[in-house]
TrEMBL record:
Residues 4-366 form the Aminotransferase class V domain. It comes from Sporolactobacillus spathodeae. This is cysteine desulfurase. It catalyses: (sulfur carrier)-H + L-cysteine = (sulfur carrier)-SH + L-alanine. Its EC number is 2.8.1.7.
Length: 388
């Protein structure tokens, strides 16, 4: 039996159409877009066309799109770049307890440089409260960074409300849209977002490429120093084939957004129905109303997550948890800790399944059976006793 890949939030397989365009670009477009000769102009056109396609997809202007190496660089560029450019206006930044490390660690770095960081708490469903944001907002707040949708539990944040709340404040609004981009319709004209980061490899696009949307009126201090590429916002020779692939992947998302959403919702429903029919004991982590369709985080009471993941892997099902294995020990997920408390059993017994458009219904039926069987086995072999 072929293994079943249910870890699309980690990374997703490349769409064949995207790959074809990349290979074609590698073969036919050899110039550097900064060169003025015909080879350079040909490469420049590829970059311009992709930029145009990407800008259209979020209601932005082409010049507001900066190509990056992915989500991590986009987050760092937005947060560190905005903080450095705006420190004369204040040194206070607000973010949340459930951000990806790309945001967390950029904020920690800024704290070490003398910025003051406030973290918004989340409720048990993973949502922040606008009231807490209002309370924490200060005159010297220069940046608020709240992720669009969470990578571990899929909870969507009230992005539109946050953007409107900040509209009359000096603070810029950055959102990490790395997980949300392929299954949420977003428009920076409707929703006044100043900075939005995304990554190609989460949407069946190329790895090592992404973009940061930077509202026209916003200036960032560059975090890399070198050439004048990307209107002096991101130095370094363009990765033209990857940019061509990203443009195509974004165009495909745009053309098929409703289908992408409905496919993931259907796969999610099948998984939940099958687990219920199999009599599995589980709870869904995350917000029941505001969630990313492709992410399903499940708590299996009394089941040790490391054993579950290992056994699933042996049975051919690739899933994940929010835990990070460091030097042989498993660190509980900071997201689940923020939602339930650091000692809560959910932090040690929760599994993340993340679906993709190439998953078939048959795969999900099979995966649900394997999962239910494995959970049953682990609950009865005494492994459950390992978790308190
Ligand atoms: C929410 C979120 N932000 C940022 C990143 C980092 O993106 P990249 O892998 O493209 O650097 C990820 C990747 O898992 C993510 O899930």
């Amino acid at each position: 039996m072929d293994p079943i890949y249910l870890d699309h939030a980690a990374t997703s397989p490349i769409d064949p159409q995207v790959l074809e365009i990349m290979i074609d670009t590698y073969k036919k477009v050899i110039g550097n877009p900064e060169s003025i000769h015909s080879f350079g102009r040909q490469a420049r056109k590829v970059v311009d066309d992709a930029r145009h396609e990407i800008a259209k997809s979020i209601g932005a202007r082409s010049r507001e799109i900066v190509f990056t190496s992915g989500g991590t660089e986009g987050d760092n560029m937005a947060i560190i770049g905005a903080a450095r450019a705006r420190q004369a206006l204040g040194k206070h930044i607000i973010t949340t307890d459930v951000e990806h490390h790309a945001v967390f660690r950029a904020c920690e770095y800024l704290a070490s440089c003398g910025f003051s960081i406030d973290y918004l708490h989340v409720d048990a469903s993973g949502r922040i409260s606008l009231e807490e944001l209002e309370e924490k907002l200060r005159e010297d707040t220069i940046l608020v960074s709240v992720m669009y949708g969470n990578n571990e539990v899929g909870t969507l944040q009230p992005i539109r409300e946050i953007a409107h709340l900040l509209a009359d404040h000096q603070a810029l609004f950055h959102t990490d849209a790395v997980q949300a981009f392929g299954t949420v319709d977003m428009d920076v004209k409707d929703t006044p977002i100043d900075l939005l980061s995304m990554s190609g490899h989460k949407i069946n696009g190329p790895k090592g490429i992404g973009f940061l949307y930077v509202r026209d009126s916003v200036s960032l201090a560059p975090i890399t120093h070198g050439g004048d590429q990307e209107r002096k916002r991101r130095a370094g020779t363009h990765n033209v084939p990857a940019i061509a692939g990203l443009g195509e992947a974004v165009a495909l998302v745009r053309a098929n957004l409703t289908d992408r959403i409905n496919t993931c919702l259907k796969l999610r429903r099948i998984m939940l129905d099958d687990l219920t029919a199999e009599g599995a004991n589980f709870q869904v982590n995350g917000n029941p109303e505001h969630f990313l369709p492709q992410v399903l985080n499940l708590y299996f009471p009394g089941v040790a997550i490391e054993s579950l993941l290992t056994r699933l892997d042996l049975e051919g099902v690739a899933a994940s948890s929010g835990s990070a294995c460091t030097a042989g020990s498993v660190e509980p997920s900071h997201v689940l800790s923020a939602m339930f408390g650091s000692d809560a059993p959910e932090t040690r017994s929760s599994l993340r399944l993340s679906f993709g458009v190439e998953n078939t219904e048959d795969e999900i039926h099979r995966a649900a059976q394997i999962l239910a069987k494995t959970v049953r086995a682990l609950s009865t072999t005494g492994k459950a006793g390992e978790i308190k």
